[in-house]
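Risk mitigation, structural track. In case the binding assays with glutamine fail to produce interpretable data, a predicted complex structure has been prepared as a fallback.
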Amino acid sequence: MCRHLGWLGEPVSVASLMLDPPSGLLVQSYAPRRQKHGLMNADGWGVGFFTDDTTVPRRWRSAAPLWGDASFASVAPALSSRCVVAAVRSATVGMPIESSASAPFTDGTWLLSHNGVVDRAVLPAARDAESTNDSALLAALIFGRGMDALGDTIAGVGADDPGARLNIVAADGSRLLATTWGDTLSVLRRDDGVVLASEPYDDDPAWQEIPDRHLVEVTGARVESTPLTALKGS
Ligand code: GLN
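Fallback model:
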């Protein structure tokens, strides 16, 4: 399992989202507070963010622990964005540990992080997947079906693999989409934007937990969540 985070709002530094909060992704990489599966997230990390000069997201991913990356810690305060997806990874047993297996994945327009596990046997082979881990294959399936079908795709995969955990955070620069399916997700509405995170990065009482099996859409300051039900025959 991993921990992930999405941001949509005013430009803020990547460091202010990932590294500075008292229980942000940096701390979650070695001491997550609410993680049910796995003790730490030391098998890599990644961040993708949109800048105003292009619709193509920029990414920085690694197969090493976030806490050891002094270069990223130095540069992250200077990276500013209105829309960010970031993750720290705890690889499922048997999955490759390589930077291309770390979220966020991309199809060139969207960024997508998967927090969870899914049996690769229920996923179609995808030649365009970035890696061979379950999360990369799931990302390729979701991108192939289209982001407007995210809820249906997750509900279908959830029906095919009842043990799957399928929490997603995705963004295209103007929208954040997320699902809860077997793991936690919280939302924080700030004056300058909206944060979605596997677990709160601080003790602000304004964090609200999203119920399990929901689809979340953030557009501007609007946060909408709708229930998902397992579909047969994905
Ligand atoms: N199943 C994932 C992997 O190994 C585990 C990490 C995560 O929660 N995305 O890639």
